């Protein structure tokens, strides 16, 4: 599966700062010190509907992570999956009388268009669950051989008790885990399970649903969590720098994925940092495909909204915060974009070197994009009120905003 084209990232003078970021597993900030190649895995979409603002906010956060690392002169090895076979996709295709594979390809193509428009840097590897199945089957077989998996009526489950570190990503108690498992695709009440929250690794073939040859597992399809584990281990290995996604993935997805990988390899941890973006609400409730309260990036673009303004609307909120999308949020972003473009369109301006360092410091401090935006606002106000004599300043600001914030002026 191919990703989307990369926008050019301008080179900036000086050196970027190493990233300090909030780690869900430890509950506090940690300083990341990747080697020459920084490794990041971000969980991708289930393509049964278009990209909404909640999706965009999540991918914007991890785009900033990439940009901070690139500014330190590192290479970035970024991997993202597409869950192109799963119950929600099959249910949507059945409801609308569509071929599930065609629906997945259609929505994945639209996602690529949205990411390109928003100037999100693409992953090096963009992998669909279906194409990963040949690598998933041996992992499930290995977990079974290790005694970390068991069978119920042809379905293969992972035993969370097989990982001594289970629970160290989310730190939830058993009751909370059971509740979230039921809400997020699990089956805690199924008879025969060793632990109610044990997740499925391999679902035996069901009538009328797609299935693949699973070797000794029989025909079927993979569970949600093992998909990401197979892709991450194949392309990044254990101990990569950042596992990322929305905060709704902390449990069960990232907790289970970590345990799968740790049981498979005997190593800990799967990732050095577990980083999660907040949820975006509309009309008082979290944007959700199941609820239908969505604002689609593609719809905003069709209505003529500049993608740079959409991006600024996302950047105006700290990535870990839960916030609400409103017409005013978008209008504020449109206004800000106009001010910034007017400021950099002049032939000269106030010196910009200190501003670049302010943006760098803000982003290095747990991706504090609102602080970075405020710094650019101050420069733009100074430009409007008194101007300056530095003929290179507007260009420096334009390149810095592009390179570090992904906003083209």
TrEMBL record:
This is L-cysteine:1D-myo-inositol 2-amino-2-deoxy-alpha-D-glucopyranoside ligase. The keyword ATP-binding applies. Residues 1-20 are annotated as: Disordered. Catalyzes the ATP-dependent condensation of GlcN-Ins and L-cysteine to form L-Cys-GlcN-Ins. Zn(2+) binds at residues 43, 228, 253. It catalyses: 1D-myo-inositol 2-amino-2-deoxy-alpha-D-glucopyranoside + L-cysteine + ATP = 1D-myo-inositol 2-(L-cysteinylamino)-2-deoxy-alpha-D-glucopyranoside + AMP + diphosphate + H(+). A motif ('HIGH' region) lies at residues 45-55. A motif ('ERGGDP' region) lies at residues 183-188. Belongs to the class-I aminoacyl-tRNA synthetase family. MshC subfamily. GO terms for molecular function: cysteine-glucosaminylinositol ligase activity. Its EC number is 6.3.1.13. L-cysteinyl-5'-AMP binds at residues 43-46, 58, 81-83, 224, 246-248, 280. It comes from the Bacteria. Its cofactor is Zn(2+). Binds 1 zinc ion per subunit. The lineage of its organism: Bacteria, Bacillati, Actinomycetota, Actinomycetes, Kitasatosporales. NCBIfam families: mycothiol_MshC. Monomer. Keywords: ATP-binding, Ligase, Metal-binding, Nucleotide-binding, Zinc. A motif ('KMSKS' region) lies at residues 286-290. Residues 39-334 form the tRNA synthetases class I catalytic domain. The gene is mshC.
């Amino acid at each position: 599966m191919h990703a989307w084209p990369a926008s050019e990232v301008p080179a900036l003078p000086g050196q970027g700062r190493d990233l300090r970021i909030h780690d869900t597993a430890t509950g506090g900030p940690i300083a990341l010190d990747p080697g020459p190649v920084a490794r990041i895995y971000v969980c991708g979409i289930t393509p049964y509907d278009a990209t909404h603002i909640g999706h965009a906010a999540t991918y914007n956060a991890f785009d900033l992570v990439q940009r901070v690392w690139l500014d330190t002169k590192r290479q970035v090895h970024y991997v993202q999956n597409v869950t192109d076979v799963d119950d929600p996709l099959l249910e949507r295709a059945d409801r609308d009388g569509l071929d599930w594979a065609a629906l997945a390809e259609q929505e994945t193509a639209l996602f690529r268009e949205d990411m390109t428009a928003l100037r999100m840097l693409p992953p090096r590897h963009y992998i669909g669950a279906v194409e990963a199945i040949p690598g998933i089957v041996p992992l499930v077989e290995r977990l079974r051989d290790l005694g970390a998996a068991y069978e119920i009526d042809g379905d293969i489950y992972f035993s969370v008790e097989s990982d001594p570190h289970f629970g160290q990503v989310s730190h939830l108690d058993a009751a909370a885990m059971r509740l979230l498992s039921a809400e997020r695709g699990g089956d805690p009440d199924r008879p025969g399970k060793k632990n109610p929250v044990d997740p499925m690794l391999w679902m035996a073939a069901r009538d009328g649903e797609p299935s693949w040859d699973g070797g000794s597992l029989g025909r079927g399809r993979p569970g949600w969590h093992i998909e990401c584990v197979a892709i991450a281990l194949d392309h990044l290995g254990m101990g990569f720098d950042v596992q990322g996604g929305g905060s709704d993935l902390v449990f069960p997805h990232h907790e289970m994925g970590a345990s799968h990988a740790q049981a498979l390899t005997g190593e800990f941890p799967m990732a050095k940092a577990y980083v999660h973006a907040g949820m975006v609400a509309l009309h008082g409730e979290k944007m959700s495909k199941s609820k239908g309260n969505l604002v689609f990036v593609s719809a905003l673009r069709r209505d003529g909204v500049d993608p740079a303004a959409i991006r600024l609307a996302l950047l105006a909120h700290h990535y870990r915060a839960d916030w609400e999308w409103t017409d005013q949020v978008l209008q504020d972003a449109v206004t800000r974009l106009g001010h910034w473009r007017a400021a950099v369109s002049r032939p000269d301006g106030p010196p910009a070197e200190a501003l670049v360092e302010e943006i760098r410091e803000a982003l290095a401090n747990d991706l504090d994009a609102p602080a970075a935006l405020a710094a650019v606002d101050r420069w733009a106000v100074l430009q409007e009120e008194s101007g300056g004599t530095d003929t290179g300043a507007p260009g420096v600001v334009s390149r810095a905003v592009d390179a570090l914030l992904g906003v083209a002026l």
